[in-house]
Amino acid sequence: MRKYLIGLLAIAAVLLSGCGYNQIQSQDEQVTSSWSEVLNQYQRRADLIPNLVSTVKGEAKFEQDTLTKVVEARSKATSIQATPDLVNNPEAFQKFQQAQGQLTSALSRLLVVTESYPSLRTNQGFRDLQAQLEGTENRITVARNRYIKSVQEYNVTIRSFPSNLTAMVFGYKAKANFAVENEKELATPPSVSFDTPAAK
Description:
By secondary structure, the protein is mainly alpha-helical. The protein is 74% helix and 0% strand.
């Protein structure tokens, strides 16, 4: 009887080792960790914005409308509760991504408008903040890429046999991933003409 029980346990261990449970757990943790890094970088950007806005406000002629849009976009982006569970809710994830995209767009407009103010461009505080913001944008890109890769590995695992059976039994579902907002526009190739205009 004891030999039979030991044999049964050995067979169960072999079967369970191939079910993918541990791999799913590991990859789920990797997705959570990667998502935390994305949030960390977005928070860093949100923390830099008030300093940037305060520095820019010192320029008397500056366009108030642009500053207002940046402040509103930051407020909207930081109002969304960004928890690790957000990656399990595609609708909430999309709202979060849209809010961050609006903030990126508003910041881009702000930096373009500042080019018209030479005194602002020579301000050391502004230049330091601009460099920090550019560095943060690069970190956001790296963090998002790591997250995308983690989600891809996780989603492939829970859809592949036999780990898909384990995922189904334990209720693991595909995680949401970043998408390009203007995918249709990007799919349309730009029209470029190398023709020289006719001489008059």
